[in-house]
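tool=predict chain=A
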Amino acid sequence: MAVFKDHKKDPDATLDWIFDWNDWLSEAETISDSEFILDPGISIDPVKGFTNTMKTTTVWLTGGTEGQVYRVTNRITTSEGRIDDRSFTLRCTNR
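tool=predict ok
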């Protein structure tokens, strides 16, 4: 599982995070299913949720506690039946 660079988020912010799978997917391969796995304390915004295109996924995150670090993982299944994860850490800090 690859881990992306560290990101920061204010506990009161609701922000979008994009996973770009273009470099990993073959030219004809697309994302057929996507799920997000989050550490407890951070959540997917209930209104905006998450979406995916043929080659990217986007999740809207909300919440978190000042000073805490959370792992955000995107697990996809492709049109070729491959399954893979990408993760990043999200640090909550007052901004």
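Residues 38 and 72 are 5 Å apart (CA to CA). The chain has no helices and nine strands.
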